Structure formats: structure tokens, C-alpha cells
């Protein structure tokens, strides 16, 4: 046996728990799942959770923690913990954690995110909404709701020009990580041209967890690269992109990257997608641009704030689809998290750098 003791604090599917028990990487695997509470005061059901009732001796024994929400309250609660594998791509919900702020934890514990486990699901959602926009799915839904065979609601009378194809159009991807690379792969398969914008603006190989058969390993799919922080260089990016997809993290550079000025530089026919974080967009500016038909449409899976209040105008903005931060939810999510844990456990034991290793000095 390895001498490693795994503690899981998420309601992981039982067959995955058993797989972790039998994989040979852990001496013990203990499962104390988070309890989800129906009817909680929090309006976002996914976060309706209470801390699991984990016995003190389990915390003491644990050397590895697999978690979505919960960390030890202090280093003393889990003195032997050395590896934390989160089940979320973002870890901003751990901001303010007294445990991660501890100097001893920064020295002794490694933390890895789950970035990449949902890249294909998110990329599929993005392509679904792009196709729905180009092929006027909202009009087709109205035709069915009206039980009408009147094709002129979709195709002008005497014409066959119903909707544009996405083939030949240009998609601009901002943030060329695991999600952006899989968007590029799918878009290329549909015959779209790809532009990429990143913090460096230079072609780079993929990093982190990549689902087999997805992405763009060597960064060869984009026809051009742009530095996202260079406003002058980005003017060409906005002008050429028929679709703009935001896959970037929120930083000082990317906060409100989409604002009144950048929206004015986009094509009037452009379609905007945000699956990164809500703060990348100035939502008031987006609402104004959509209502004034300055751009053609938008799909946002992330908002600022979250949850989006029921009376927020974004819900009813013209040509805007809003979903509740759900595009990454896939039946393969937990399976890939367990796979990533096994990969990182093997790397930890051999002294290699973890996949999606996070810098604890930022906490």
C-alpha cells in the first residue's frame, strides 16, 4: 500500500469512489459527501450545501483531499494533508480561506484545480448557441409554437436565402486555454477561420489537463494571434471577428474587456459569447449595444453578479440568451475529476509538477 489516505468531501458517484479504492494509489479512501439542502436561502441550488460531518480522526489521517467546497478550518485540523485536488476549474470561492493563508500550508500543501475537465462540454454549448444564432433557431421555435407552415417567417418571399452558414466566418477566441482550444477545434471542423487573443499574443502549446482527442495541442489552428491587453492591436481582432468568444480569466487587464468602446469596434452582425466570468463584460454596455442593435446577439453563461437577480434587465435583453453558469455540467465531469486525481497522485509520488498546480502564495 502507498501510505496515502484520501478523503473525499463531495458526493462523488459510488463507482468512482470504488475505482479510487482499487487503483492502488491509496491505502484508505474515506467518503463524507457534502449535503445539499433543498429550500436553502441561497437562490443558486448548486451552492445549497452544508459541510459534511467528517470525524476528527479522518481529518487527522488524510494526506490527500478531493473537494469542491470544503477545506480544513486550520492546519491543525488536517496536519498530514499534502495534496488538495479541487473539483472546480476556478478556485475563487476559496478566497479568504484561513487554511490556505497559513504559512505552513503554503510550504507543505500542493493545490490543483480541475481546469480542463469540462472543456469539451463547454465548447459544445458554445457551438450550439453559435449555430442557433446563425440559423435563427428563435424564429424556428416561434414557427412551431404558432403551428405555422409559413416559410416566409424564416425565408423572405420568393427567396431561398434563409440563414447564413457559419462556414467561412471568423471566430475570435479570447483566452486560448483548454476551452478556447476546443472551441477552435470544433469551429475549424465547421469551416470557420480562427483568431486567438491571449495575454502574450504568441502561439503556445497547450498546458494542463486535456481530454484525449480534443483541443489544439501545438496552437496551430489560429490564423493570427493578438495580445489581448494591446488595445490598438485588438482593433483588428474586433473588426475581423464575426463571433467573439470569451474564455479568459478575470484579471486587471480583462475586467470589462468588453465595454462600450470595444463593442463599437465589433461588426454590427457580430455574436458575443461569454463562458469565462461575468466581470469580463460591462453588462450595462452590453445591454445598450444589444437593445440598439449595435451587435447582433449574445450568449452568456456567466454574469455579474451570480446568481443574476430575477429583475435584472439582462434576462429580457433583445437577442440575448442567458444560462445559469451551467455549460460545464456533463455526465463525464466527475469521471474526469477522478482521472485527474489519479494522474496528479502519481505525479506527486514521483516528484513531478502537478497538472493545474495552483500558486498558494496568491492566497
Automatic annotation (TrEMBL):
Annotated coiled-coil segments of the chain: none
Segments forming domain D-isomer specific 2-hydroxyacid dehydrogenase NAD-binding: 127-326
InterPro entries: D-isomer_DH_CS, D-isomer_DH_NAD-bd, NAD(P)-bd_dom_sf
Gene Ontology MF terms in the entry: NAD binding; oxidoreductase activity
UniProt keyword NAD, yes or no: yes
Keyword terms of this UniProt record: NAD, Oxidoreductase
Record protein name field: D-isomer specific 2-hydroxyacid dehydrogenase NAD-binding domain-containing protein
Organism annotation: Protomyces lactucae-debilis
Amino acid at each position: 500500500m502507498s501510505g496515502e489516505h484520501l478523503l473525499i468531501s463531495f458526493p462523488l458517484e459510488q463507482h468512482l469512489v470504488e475505482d479510487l479504492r482499487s487503483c492502488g494509489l491509496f491505502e484508505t479512501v474515506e467518503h463524507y459527501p457534502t449535503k445539499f439542502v433543498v429550500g436553502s436561502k441561497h437562490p443558486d441550488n448548486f451552492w445549497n450545501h452544508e459541510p459534511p460531518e467528517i470525524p476528527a480522526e479522518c481529518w487527522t489521517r488524510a494526506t490527500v483531499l478531493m473537494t469542491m467546497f470544503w477545506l480544513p478550518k486550520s492546519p491543525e485540523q488536517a496536519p498530514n494533508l499534502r495534496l488538495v485536488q479541487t473539483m472546480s476549474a476556478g478556485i475563487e470561492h476559496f478566497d479568504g480561506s484561513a487554511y490556505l493563508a497559513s504559512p505552513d500550508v503554503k510550504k507543505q500543501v500542493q493545490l490543483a484545480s480541475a481546469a480542463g475537465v469540462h472543456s469539451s462540454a463547454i465548447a459544445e454549448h458554445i457551438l450550439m448557441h453559435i449555430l442557433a444564432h446563425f440559423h435563427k433557431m428563435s424564429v424556428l421555435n416561434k414557427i412551431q409554437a404558432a403551428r405555422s407552415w409559413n416559410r416566409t417567417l424564416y425565408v423572405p418571399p420568393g427567396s431561398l436565402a434563409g440563414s447564413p452558414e457559419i462556414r467561412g466566418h471568423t471566430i475570435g477566441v479570447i483566452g486560448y486555454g483548454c476551452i478556447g482550444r476546443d472551441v477552435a477545434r470544433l469551429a475549424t471542423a465547421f469551416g470557420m477561420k480562427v483568431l486567438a487573443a491571449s495575454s502574450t499574443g504568441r502561439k503556445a502549446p497547450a498546458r494542463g489537463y486535456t481530454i484525449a482527442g480534443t483541443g489544439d495541442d501545438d496552437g496551430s489552428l489560429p490564423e493570427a494571434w493578438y495580445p489581448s491587453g494591446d488595445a490598438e492591436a485588438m482593433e483588428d481582432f474586433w473588426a475581423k471577428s464575426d463571433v467573439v468568444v470569451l474564455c479568459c480569466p478575470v484579471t486587471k487587464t480583462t475586467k470589462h474587456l468588453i465595454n462600450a468602446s470595444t463593442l463599437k469596434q465589433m461588426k454590427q452582425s457580430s455574436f458575443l459569447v461569454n463562458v469565462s466570468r461575468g466581470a469580463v463584460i460591462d453588462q450595462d454596455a452590453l445591454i445598450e449595444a444589444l437593445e440598439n442593435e449595435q451587435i447582433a446577439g449574445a450568449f452568456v453563461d456567466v454574469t455579474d453578479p451570480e446568481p443574476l437577480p430575477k429583475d435584472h434587465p439582462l434576462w429580457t435583453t433583445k437577442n440575448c440568451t442567458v444560462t445559469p453558469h451551467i455549460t460545464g455540467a456533463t455526465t463525464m465531469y466527475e469521471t474526469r475529476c477522478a482521472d485527474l486525481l489519479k494522474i496528479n497522485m502519481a505525479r506527486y509520488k514521483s516528484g513531478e509538477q502537478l497538472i493545474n498546480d495552483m500558486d498558494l502564495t496568491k492566497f
